[in-house]
Specification:
The structure is a single chain. Strands 3-4-2-1-7-8-9-10 form an 8-stranded mixed β-sheet, with helices on both faces. A 6-stranded parallel β-sheet has the order 13-12-11-14-15-16, sandwiched between helices. A hairpin with a 2-residue loop joins strand 5 and strand 6. It has 2 domains: 184 residues, Rossmann fold, CATH 3.40.50.2000; 182 residues, Rossmann fold (3-Layer(aba) Sandwich), CATH 3.40.50. The protein is of the alpha/beta class. Helix content is 41%, strand content 21%. Helix 9 crosses helix 12, helix 10 packs across helix 15 and helix 13 packs across helix 16. 42% of the residues are buried. It is built from 17 helices and 16 strands.
């Protein structure tokens, strides 16, 4: 049985897009491959425990610099894992420049196949991005395959567009089990609809950080009449400033962190799902795909090089407007609200796109096919 080692930042129960992708890969191949994961520990100490029956080595994180975790013992622990586990395939989740420094020491005479799972370019930390240009070039040189989550990201990334021969597209997937709903959720949705009876319910959720673009949704709300209700889930560094910005707008309500049960209810209850992300930091948009799974018409900004506009297709599964254009976003909300025909068209197409492209079964098929290649 071949051995696969995944190297990423964190792992379940820490929640995030990269962590979920790591777990999805793990569960895609668990019948056919022996597996191991090495990551940082979101709690204290260096420990090895299990997730879904696979050993997860979690290295004690001493600090974070520009969102990058730092562990003084990482090189030693990685060397031990590589020696004991002797992987046939290493999947490195990019970006992770601190860890890449130690991985590079194992690449020159590597006896394993290297797959770079490219989640996003280093966009926000421009100085760091330039600092690690040489490292990224070497990683790509040694990589046997580079996985991108959409063809849009390949075209929009200077790194991937110049290395297309190594690239393969495997879209991220949504967790169908997590999104299944029952009569309890339907009843919760009815109560939400009753609370905002007579209004068009616009729902959005996500971390309140700059690239998620929630401020543009708040600004767009100010251009809507009182026939609309804008519900925003999640929290983050910008929560207070968003609340302040919306203080004179009774149409906007902040829900705070919402549970999975609440998320299902709001998906069921809403008329329009708003996804106002604005930069390539939003490389894909799992939350967007989840809303489409619920057959919700969506509204996005155009984000050059992002997979957002691959997940939702302009004028097919939803409306797409110029990036950061608040007036256009408000008009798109009005346009969708006014046309049952358009809402029905987008709803049907959104559900169909997710079912055909973005479910776990399709992801599993893609991953197994990749690992069976003669890399």
């Amino acid at each position: 049985m071949k051995r696969v080692l995944q190297i990423n930042n964190y792992m379940y129960p820490h929640i995030g897009g990269i962590e979920q992708t790591t777990r999805d890969i793990l569960n895609s191949i668990k019948e056919e491959y022996e597996q191991r994961v090495i990551c940082f520990n979101h709690e204290k100490g260096t420990v090895t425990n299990q997730v879904d029956g696979v050993d997860i080595t979690r290295v004690n994180c001493q600090a974070k610099v520009a969102s990058q975790s730092i562990a003084l013992s990482y090189g030693k622990v990685l060397k031990k894992v590589m020696k004991e586990f002797q992987p046939d395939i290493v999947i490195f989740h990019y970006p992770n420049p601190f860890v890449a420094h130690f991985l590079m020491k194992h690449l020159k005479n590597k006896k394993f196949k290297l797959i770079m799972w490219w989640h996003l370019d280093i966009v926000k930390q421009k100085i760091l991005g330039k600092l690690f240009n040489g490292q990224t070039k070497k990683l790509i040189k040694y990589a046997d395959r580079i996985v991108a989550t959409s063809p849009n990201y390949i075209e929009g990334s200077k790194w991937l567009s110049s290395n297309k021969d190594k690239c393969v597209v495997i879209p991220s997937c949504i967790n169908e089990e997590r999104l299944k709903y029952d009569d309890t959720h339907i009843q919760m949705a009815k109560e939400i609809k009753e609370k905002y009876k007579g209004k068009t319910i616009c729902f959005s959720f996500g971390r309140h950080v700059e690239y998620k673009g929630m401020t543009y949704l708040v600004k767009a709300s100010k251009l809507l009449s009182d026939d609309y209700q804008v519900l925003i889930g999640g929290k983050g560094p910008l929560t207070d400033s968003l609340i302040k910005e919306a203080k004179d707008d009774n149409k906007v309500e902040f829900l705070g962190r919402i549970s999975d049960d609440e998320l299902k209810a709001y998906f069921l209850a809403c008329d329009i799902f708003c996804f106002p992300s604005i930069t390539k930091n939003e490389a894909f948009g799992v939350g967007l795909a989840e809303a489409m799974y619920y057959a919700k018409p969506v509204i996005t900004f155009n984000i050059p090089g992002s997979g957002v506009n691959y997940v939702s297709i302009k004028d097919e599964t939803g409306l797409e407007v110029d990036n950061c254009n608040v007036e256009q976003y408000a008009e798109a909300i009005k346009q969708l609200s006014a046309s049952d025909e358009l809402k029905n068209k987008f709803s049907q197409n959104a559900k169909k796109r997710v079912d055909e492209l973005l479910l776990f079964s399709k992801f599993k098929e893609h991953v197994k096919s990749l690992l069976k290649e003669e890399l």
